[in-house]
Amino acid sequence: MLKCSTVGELLYFLGIFEPLQVQIIEELGRPKGEQLLIQLQQLPLKQSHAVTRLGSYSCRGEKPLSIRLQFAQEPEQLQQTLLHEIAHFLDHQTRPAPCSYRNPHGKSWQYWLQRVGADREADHSVAMSTLYRQRLKPVARCKRCGQLLERLRRLPQKQRWLHRNCGGLFVPIDQI
Ligand SMILES: [Zn+2]
Ligand SMILES: [Zn+2]
What we know:
Elements: H1 7-14, H2 17-28, H3 30-42, E1 45-47, E2 55-60, E3 63-69, H4 75-94, H5 107-117, H6 126-135, E4 137-142, E5 148-151, E6 170-172
Parallel strand pairs: 1-3
Antiparallel strand pairs: 2-3, 4-5, 4-6
Helix pairs in contact: 1-3, 2-3, 4-5
The structure holds zinc ion (2 copies).
One zinc ion binds at residues 84, 88, 104-105.
């Protein structure tokens, strides 16, 4: 996962490029949709060490710059966060005036989030995913590299949790 340097590579890795492609082409038609898909695939993917954010989409003016993700998330969370940021990219790129990207979680973003998340769990909703993101909290820190693990609940006591990226042991935050 860490070897992915573009959004396209991660989409293939997670096996969600095709459903996304279908949604985007359906929504925007061929030339525009395909153009955006190419841009999205080539968009740089960066690793974020931010504690308080699971991901972010950055742009300058009308130009998309990158998507950043906190890779310490569990796989299902990572996928949801990726779709959240992709909805920002699509919203930004399809606005009448993309030069200023205001109100990033407004109606048009919510619409895109539903489009790109439509084939996920049936009860997936904007309210749910927003709530989910807000309730995540750092629960453990990797002993080796210091990365934080964010979850809804604390880690189960009896199990050892290893950081997939570096092999270090996650130590619950209340034990540090
Ligand atoms: Zn957002
Ligand atoms: Zn680590």
